[in-house]
Input
Amino acid sequence: MPQGYVAPILHAHLPFVRHPEYPEFLEEDWFYEAITETYLPLLDMMEGLVRDGVPFRLTMSLTPPLCAMMRDPLLQDRYVHGLEKLLELTAKELDRTRHDPVFHELARFYHDRLHQCRQMFCDRYRRDLVGAFRKFQDAGVLEIITCGATHGFLPLMREFPQAVRAQVQVARNDYRSCFGRDPRGIWLPECAYYPGLENYLQEAEIRWFILDAHGVLYAEPRPAYGVFAPLFTQAGPAAFGRDIESSKQVWSAEEGYPGDGDYRDFYRDCGFDLEYDYIRPYIQPNGIRKFTGLKYYRITGRTPHKEPYRPWVARERAAQHAGNFMFNREKQVQHLRGVMGVEPIVVCPYDAELYGHWWYEGPMFLDYLFRKTAYDQKTFEMITPSEFLTRHDTHQIATPSASSWGNEGHWSVWLEGSNAWIYPHLHMATVRMIELAGRFCQTQPHHLRDRALRQAARELLLAQSSDWAFIMKTGTMVPYAVKRTKDHLLRFNRLYDQILADRVDESFLGNCEWRNPIFLDLDWRVYA
Amino acid sequence: MPKSAPKNKKPAARKNPPGKNGGAKKSVSIKKKRETKPTPSPRLRESPLPVDQSAHKFVLQPFTPSAPEPEMPAFEFLGELPESYGTRRLFLAARDPRWLYAYWDFSWQQLRDAEQESPEGKVFLQIFIPGSERIHQIQIFPGSKEWYLPVHRPATLFQAELGYYRQDGSFHSLAISDEVLTPRDDPSPNREVEFVTIPFHYSFRQLLDLIRDQIRPGEGLAKALARLQREGYPLPFPYALRRVVPSGLADRILEYLGGDLIRRIRIGSLEITETLRRRLLELGSSGVPSSLSSGPRGQDRTFSMHVNAELIIYGGTVPGAKVTVDGREIHLRPDGTFSYHFTFPDGRFHIPIAASAPDGLEERSVLLSFLRLTDATPGVDPTRQPPLPEPIGRTA
Output
């Protein structure tokens, strides 16, 4: 019997970014980069673990916008096109660096990696990444959980129960269409929770969610086991709290593993380093440089001086870090088991895109961690929260504290000087959507009006994405986030006026549907 | 691999994309010149791009795209959102254990009308604890829309109200918010431990159906199950009650977690993104470019501009006087002077300052109003500022 459990959880999310109206669009690169650097490496890792018969458990959220993008043929085409261009660049790089063994080796490294990505994406998975992840869930090694329909920040819509319910139920329905079953867990967008939210999860039969540590530690009454056991909320869904120690080891900008000098440097990218006329075909069409993903240097130190990247050394370092992480979890679990008298669960949630995209060696680290955990120790077992609740179904009842995993731990990232202006508009659109749903839910079906109502709900949901407020706060790409928020609200408002006036402009509606075809079967009556 | 590129052919000839014939002569001459060099070109830079790219301008020129500006997609610009909707709604949120945030959806004219209806011409936002004391009273002006309110009271219920005083001193309410609860900022003193068994293989619907007629009004599923299990109510699944936990366990766990450390390392996606992007800026790139940013086509220029503003409020009175800024008493220097240094972001700020004589018999007051509206062309960044507070009294 293990003395305790560790539950690694990866939150895979990107906002819905898809611009058929332009031949290329920089912000779509977020998705393409994440496929190459995070999603495919994670899938490859799981393929290897299953192939080698390594027992492991991983939990991942795949948010509805991310699933929608993964299933979108336009974005799939564009990803393959971008991959072909990068392969062309790596071919040129092989030639350019042929007299320089160090960089030639690196060019070869990227050339091979990109070839592997193309093979996986096009041949092995036939462009179906949702299906690829689903296969591992069906095999029982991966638990996929859902999220808010568009990653809406739920505490700031709590005055509108229909809006919160729509975020949960639309996500649940989308999950069904992607994975052929109901989700059992949810990653609350930004881990943002307020007391009472569990009622909507109960309605959707969602059994558990994750909170930042203080959400559980400051629960009412005080949790006897801290964050090392879930709490049952009054309505039934269980709250798991983030472990601080393991988060810090990976997350911390100062002390975390990803800052090691042998790991790949994120910023030194050929898109910025190589001479302009050479790199010109591989940057933005308007001539502005961008990241290509070909990065030839390691972090080295805290100065601008960088040494060439050595993949084999970085791999060795990832193995060492995995060993260190495992050792620390063993000590932690042993200590907690002694103090608590029952098996603790150490919940380790991270942004999935940290692994591979920001921390290039992250998937290797996970791979080593799973293998070492399976064979090099017996203190703890990897587990998913659902499995834990199946084995351990008796827990303390408490109401967690309102909290998020953002800076300062509450709402201040999503409600401050740069982004507070969005809420009067979001709330007004919500009131109007509820009004529309109430007015038309009992009327006879009307094809064009139903389409308009469905699209209005889509525009509202997309406007609610917490990513826009987050980007406004962080100060980069702000014009894009502002325009997305306004565009969705303006489209919503125009549809609202047209629906009420019974004069739906089909060309406008068609344009909205063409731009934002998310949740194809969305039932707008969820707002009634 | 580049098509038909013999092994000894130099990159200078390859770097012209297919179909770009302009400047071919120049390419040839460069090619000949470079053929004598032993190392491949272009070389990877050993350091980030220098700030001044003027030396490279001539290289960029031939690559300026000659394609016409693309047509604007249909329905690309749909106008602007309205300033307000005039619903007379007042929204209050507990942003964290210390701050509330309120906005009100009143048009300029609606607030102006309210001012005129008020005998003293003033409209106020009030924050109070329901059934108890008033915490804030702030005069608001037409055009104002929101307010951040320091309360520094975790786990407390608050409500906001907008209105004005009638002649008889009663408060005429124009809008009232929902009640909001600030979150806790420390572990609860309540150490009651109640366990419940909720079998995972039963759906919530099934569990509710099992005990529907046993649930008391206002009782949640888990609470009801816990009570029934305590009472020994027959259920079709085994339930084990673990009523006893080691004494002082919660404290030992908190101690293990590092007590105050919990707050300091509350880090999430924001911190890592901010840290990484800050590093990006420090490394001298032009930041993360956006599809919506506009730069000179085909040019990799680094011309830049940065602007910012700060606000310093200063003054003085007699030593021993009492001075309040926005209703809060401030500390005076021994000679009776004071000064405050703030950032000055975009927005409208009304800062009332009042002084009363040491004996309390006389008063003086002033209202300072500031408006900053930044309208900049793309590519203008805010100048970095020291860590200063935002001005108080923000109204928009």
Q: What stands out?
A: Residues 214 and 228 of chain B are 8 Å apart (CA to CA). Residues 269-282 of chain B form the longest helix (14 residues). Residues 11-63 of chain B form one domain.
